[in-house]
Amino acid sequence: MLNSITNMGKKTKKKAAPPPPPLTSGQRVRFGSAEGYVSKVTGDTYEVALDGGKVIQAARDKLEPIHRRLSAKPPSNKLSATRSSTELDYRGTNFEDFPDEALPLIEVSDDKEVLKVNEEAVELLRRIDCAICPISIVGLYRTGKSSLLNFLHGGKAGFRTGHSVSRCTRGVWIYGRPTRATLGDGTQVAVVLLDTEGVGGLEADRRYDERIFALATLLSATLVYNSLGSIDENAIGQLSFVAQLSRHVRFAPKEDASVDDGDEAEEDARRLGAVMPAFTWVLRDFALELADERGDAITADEYLDRSLRPQRGFEAAVLERNRVRHVLGAFFPKRQCRTLVRPVHDEAKLQQVDSLAPEELRPEFRRNLEELKDALFAPEHVKPKCAPGSNAPVSGSAFVDLAQQFVEAINNGGVPVVSSAWDHVSQTECTHASREALQLYSEVSLDLPLDEVDLHALLEKAENDALQAFDARALGDARPEHRKDLKTQLAKKTKDWRVRNDSASQDACRKSLDALYMDVVFESLQNLGKEEAGATDAAMRLEDAWSELRKRYAKDPKARGPARDRALASCLSMKWPEAAHELARRLEQRCDEAVRKEHDKLVGARAELAELEGSAAARARMLEDAQAALVSTQLEKARHEARCQAATRNLEEVQRRSDRDKLRWDDERKKLEVDLERCRAKLSVATEKVNNQARAAEDSMRALPSPSSNAGKGGCACVVA
Predict the structure, then answer these.
(1) Phi first, then psi: what are they for 199, rounded to 5°?
(2) What is the CB-side half-sphere exposure of residue 717 using CA atoms within 13 A?
(3) What share of the chain has pLDDT > 90, as a percent?
(4) How is 433-461 classified by DSSP, letter by letter?
């Protein structure tokens, strides 16, 4: 059947290639050597916005879809030269400062007896702080493994290639700059590519080849087997070194020599198969049509499964190849197959294929390469390296410890034991994880003092962060015990934080209470000492001062923490009696001062009283003299009063006479006034009469001839008034 599949291209009728699937708006495509996105679809014509800003229109057959999924903007799943690792959505170490070149990971001595882990690679790998996804490529020598890796990481000539029949890769090499990818569940992995020395060749050493293959298998999360042509009996026979894998690797050490070796080996092989990497068979320069006996198209995976079915026959060669098939199926239950056509037709260009531009490669090869990248690097296909029996991914540091354990076992002439190596790695990683978690917890900076609730929340978060950091790195069976010890140590550190917080709280609250006591209570005592207040009023005002202190203390942001209430209670129990005693002392002092002042006043009053008593005697004598003088004065007054009374009587008599004379004079005056009025009336009448006579005379004078005329007549006139 295998021969029929191998020669299917000759026996089946060539079918027309199906039309390419349509593209959708927003899909990433390649147009010649340029890339862009489909911006508009009009029938069979696609409008593409290229990365440089240019917009073109092209038919479907001119556009090549790019299936990318690793990037967060736009989706990508290829490790392309046009997309650097900094475009991936990740947190942690920036891989841009890692060397952009290949370097040895496992070095080999000249006699191929001693292996060594390269320190430069160790240093780089230990800097990888996320899960690691090592992808190794194995296969026969001079089959283009290094070239394939160069194609996978973007076409850069990172791994050394050669064109002679000699091997150009010694041991195991690693590409220095990993690519960080974010998986569908958010897990971050660093994809690293490993190149191994080819199997067979002129310098072939079967035992050495099998050890290198076993080492690459143990270190890989995905194992890529590179071969030329199709899968035929010869290709299956070339995988004989896979059948020897159980001789160079064990899952668990052999403990009981009495146990049947066959049963133990079968059980060990079964357990070993559970930790084997995913297997991808890449068929280079594949030129056949994938179809079954009836001419129906089949996938590359179906082609691989059909090729691994046991063949009939009992010849030694058939049995050996069937054993290889069985081992492949048992050790690699997760397997797939991808095909690559020849990259170029020109034989001369094929020798320099690593230096060719992408547009110089055959479109079919570029399409096959994109499919291979998708099969290896898509989020659903990327497989981190995990500890046996768990889904806990390992970091770069754990990967280095694992490699060192395997290399040490091989150098000591033994067989690498997976469980023992992982136990050592588990202990080492858990120890480092505990140390890092404790360091992370110790780096917590708290502004003490804090309230109990806030402190608990912050310490709980710090503890959770520390445990998460531990869980992110710790792995294996040693993890539960180390985690338990870590929680015990974290509990001690948490207790220390609480003790420190309580001490800081006591200091802060004590300072706050001392300051408030001076500002409120002591100031009140000072004022009470100056004011004239009674004892009851002073006690009430002191109580008000303590109430004010409690209010301010409750609002003071610095007075916080678990000792807040205890400090207040202690302050009240100690300083309240002191304040009351101080108030009593001040009141007593004020009373003593008042008594002293009253005593001084009494002494002064007594002196004044004595002085007043002496003055009173003198005043009594003066009073007697004054009384005698008063009597004499009173007698004299009586005499004067008698005289005044007599004079008054005389005066009254004179007054009466004067009044009578006045009345008489008034009567006389009135009579004279009447006579005067009569005379005036008479005079007025006489005057009126004279005036009338004068007017009459004047009128008569006017009636007489003028004097001149009378003079001419010799007459004269005389008027007698």
Answers:
(1) -85, 140
(2) 17
(3) 7
(4) HHHHHHHHHHT----SS--HHHHHHHHHH
Do residues 355 and 326 make contact, with C-beta atoms less than 8 angstroms apart? no
Using CA atoms of 533, 535, 536, 538 in order, give the dihedral in degrees to the nearest 10: 50
Q: Mean pLDDT in the chain?
A: 78
- H/E stretch holding 49 reads strand 45-50
Whether 60 and 23 have beta carbons less than 8 Å apart is answered as yes
Residues in the chain: 721
- The DSSP letter of residue 519 is I
Tell me how far apart the alpha carbons of residues 424 and 253 are, in angstroms, rounded to a whole number: 14
> Measured between alpha carbons, how far is 418 from 405 in angstroms, rounded to an integer?
9
Mapped to the 3 state alphabet, what secondary structure does 560-591 carry? CCCCHHHHHHHHHHHHHHHHHHHHHHHHHHHH
Contact (CB, 8 A) for 385 and 221? yes
Question: 């056949």: which residue's tokens?
Answer: 288
CA Rg, the chain, in Å? Answer: 66
Give the other-Cβ count within 10 Å of 204's Cβ. 12
Other Cβ atoms less than 10 A from the Cβ of 478: the count is 20
Residue matched to tokens 């109580």: 543
Give the CB-side neighbour count of residue 10, counting CA atoms within 13 A. Answer: 5
Q: Distance between CA 642 and CA 636 in Å, rounded?
A: 10
DSSP code for 654? H
Cα–Cα–Cα angle for 272, 278, 282, nearest 5°?
Answer: 130
CA distance 253 to 581: 84
Structure tokens at 464: 């959770």
pLDDT tens-place string over residues 468-521 = 888 877 777 777 888 899 999 999 989 998 898 888 888 888 888 888 888 887
**Given the DSSP bridges, would you call strands 45-50 and 102-108 parallel, antiparallel or unpaired?**
unpaired
User: Which of the four pLDDT bands, split at 50, 70 and 90, describes residue 270?
Assistant: low
If we measure between CA atoms, which residue out of 398, 387, 481, 401 comes closest to residue 434?
A: 481
What's the rounded Cα separation, in Å, for the pair 549 and 579? 13
- Rounded to whole angstroms, the Cα distance separating 18 from 37 reads 24
Q: Are 77 and 377 in contact (CB under 8 A)?
A: yes
Cα gap 464→461, rounded to integer Å: 5
